[in-house]
Specification:
123 residues, mainly alpha, 5 helices
Amino acid sequence: MILSFWFNLFFGTMIPVIIIAIGVVFKNHPPKEINSFAGYRTSRSMKSKETWEFANKYSARLMLLCGIILLIITVPILLVFRNESEEIQGVVMVALCTVQTVAVVLTIIPVEKALKNRFDNRG
């Protein structure tokens, strides 16, 4: 059970740590040009250079915040369930990964709202 706890701790915190890393990288080095490879890419964010820069800066801050919050939530939950059976720990891991993924996807909503409020349809 101890080995499975460390395994779960490593993999359970992987998504929040990756989200934090992406937030830090894009906060400090946002993509300069509109591209289809890296950055916050939606039809609204790619309308103009201004929308692109705004969306990437805003989403980077949200990703950083989201990752930190998820990490703060994930570690105590894993600690609480560390002595449970591997089956229960597995269920907890699936639930955590689902919540983490949904949280990241939901960061799209405030970015799109901010773009809509700040820019017209032409960007």
